Amino acid sequence: MKDAFGLPQSLLVLGGTSEIALATARRLIARRTRVVWLAARPSPALEAAAAELRALGPEVHTVAFDALDPDSHETVLGKVFADGDVDMVLLAFGVLGDQANDEREPAAAVRVAQTNYTGAVSAGLVSARALQAQGHGSLVVLSSVAGERARRSNFIYGSSKAGLDAFAQGLGDALHGTGVHVMVVRPGFVRSKMTAGLPETPLATTPEHVATAVELGLRRRSETVWVPGVLRVVMAALRHVPRGLFRRLAL
Question: Where are the coiled-coil regions (predicted)?
């Protein structure tokens, strides 16, 4: 069960090799978390992540999970919830894609959409139903500021995150009053392996800073968290920039 400050004893990470997710897991383990499930495709990276977290003290399990196989989600995640209550689910999987290539190869663009949106809808609904059945828990969804307004440079990725963000907000409204808390996290550019080699944008952040923001959001039972917080103001302004001008901005 979560304590009075909303921090979990048990954590299920969907996207168990995500740098942001692992930074968040480490921070929560340092506070209170004692059981962790890392769900991702089986790989040496997944086993290494599990070993790293075990060294910090908690009981850590790995779960074979594929975002692109929604037919398996109910069975795979059902086994985790059958093993005991899960205080928090962190939905952290996603792919950035390659905008230039994906525009030329529609199948690659579809894969980005299926991973970031369709897979997340499936896993999110399965997790939400399980959390509701146990009567408590948090579902934390890693969205992105890229979903706030599609940019020419990454509109395929951005559109998938826009869909995910809208879905998570609606799910939060649907679960209001049930004991289940949904929190949407909107980081800006995060320095990680996924963004290695890309031009860094202003207000860039790190997985550790995102993890800190997640912890604070859980304590406050926030519904939306921006990382860094100033992006809330920046994106509020950019949303209202006329399209013709927005198109010419170097974003």
Answer: none
Rg from Cα positions in the chain: 17
Question: What is the separation of C-alpha 194 from the centre of its chain, rounded to a whole number of angstroms?
Answer: 14
Contact between 149 and 238 (Cβ < 8 Å)? yes
117 is catalytic: no
- Residue 247 in tokens: 């198109």
Q: Which of 93, 157, 189, 226 is catalytic?
A: 157
The C-alpha atoms of residue 215 and residue 22 are separated, in whole angstroms, by 13
Cα dihedral 168/140/79/67 (nearest 10): 60
Indicate the pTM of the whole model.
Answer: 0.92
Tell me the residue type at 127. Answer: S
Helix (H, G, I), strand (E, B) or coil at 152: coil
Residue 251's pLDDT band, with cuts at 50, 70 and 90, is low
Q: Token pair 């013709």 is at which residue?
A: 244
Q: Is 43 left (phi over 0), alpha (psi -120 to 50) or beta?
A: beta
pLDDT digits (tens, 9 = 90+) for 108-122: 999 999 999 999 999
Which residue from 147, 168, 69, 158 is spatially nearest to 114, judged by alpha carbons? 69
